[in-house]
Amino acid sequence: MSVENEVPPQLAATPIPPRALPLRPPAEFASPEAALARKQAREDKDAQVRGVTSIEAMREAIKQAARDLPIITEVPRLGMLDAAAFRARAALGLPFLMRGLVQRWPLSKLEPDILRQQFSHLPVRARVGDYINTAFAADRAMQDMSMGQYLDLVAEGKYALPPYLGNLELRELNRLCHWPTYFDKMGPPRFWVGPAGTVTPLHCDYDDNIFAQVWGRKRIFLSPPHHDAFLYPREANAILFGSPFDPEAPDFQRFPLARQANMIECLVEPGDMLYVPAGWYHQVRALTFSLSSNRWARAVPLALHGGEIKARHSL
Asked: Mean of the per-residue pLDDT values for the chain?
């Protein structure tokens, strides 16, 4: 195993076996009618939160607007932006990366061993096993443990796919972050912790997203919303779609249409903040031990605020 795949030495300790989560109730115990009603209720709530009449209409508006976007081959790297400049840039509907802001966070100034020194007691839920191919399944393998136990598990280094902490609301860490007010309404910060080799497979969220790289380096592939026609999307829920295509190991025999998808590779470094517009597909791989955090907007995507698309009228 390469050095980059290892957890920093300060974080290693004696392994403690994690505790497996109880199995979820089988889906067959819920009637199709009840499942459909729950799905519709969730979509109605999501639409209300975002100020639109229909999530489906919002998705289609995002893809339609993307068809007018220029083809890009790289993600622009900018300096810090204030809220007005950010929104003006985001209204163009293209991803961009900002430097400087995250570097000012107290968390960015700390070393990774702070996770064991001060936060080993935090309860976390780790993605284990083949969490890539089951990323959007209701029954993917997860284990409850403490932060310290997770670091011990990673330090063992015996897993082909390293365990991953993803999409966790860690308020103790967030106290050390100072988020910009780029969106009128934002969801809670989510944290992502893991060594080199942890992966979030290709997917899209139909919410605007700001992604802060605090420690370590990651490689991100991006593809525009309307190229979902080439990516064999599968619905996880109304605002989350996954793709079985892997841009790092493209299999064009299985997925021939993917040859037509525009894939943009972006490296994020410590201190970077990446804007991922709603509907853009992205895949994320840690190249070193990393800590990242992100926040999703809970409003009409900024790319839909201009032109003839109005927040409450066209959606």
From this structure: 89
Where residue 171 falls (left for φ over 0; alpha for ψ -120 to 50; beta otherwise) is: alpha
HSE, side-chain direction, 13 A CA sphere, residue 34? 5
Strands, sheet with 240-242, edge to edge from the N-terminal-most edge strand: 234-237, 240-242, 199-205, 281-286, 218-223, 264-268
Which runs of E-coded beta strand occur in 161-250?
Answer: 164-168, 190-194, 199-205, 209-215, 218-223, 234-237, 240-242
pTM over 0.85: yes
- Is 174 buried (19+), middle (13-18) or exposed (0-12) by CB count in 10 A? middle
Count, residues in the chain: 315
DSSP for 72-136, please give it. -SS--EE----HHHHHHHHTT---EEEESTGGGSGGGGS-TTHHHHHHTT-EEEEE-SSTTTTTT
Q: How far apart are CA 107 and CA 64, in angstroms?
A: 39
Spatial CA neighbour of 78 closest among 67, 90, 68, 70: 90
Q: 138-141 contacts: CB < 8 A, separation 24 or more?
A: 138/24, 138/27, 139/23, 139/24
- Each residue's pLDDT tens digit, 184-209: 999 999 999 999 999 999 999 999 99
pLDDT digits (tens, 9 = 90+) for 150-171: 999 999 988 889 999 999 999 9
Which region among 4-13, 80-89, 214-223, 278-287 has the lowest average model confidence (pLDDT)? 4-13
| Spatial contact of 260 and 230, defined as CB atoms under 8 Å apart | yes
More confident residue, 305 or 288: 288
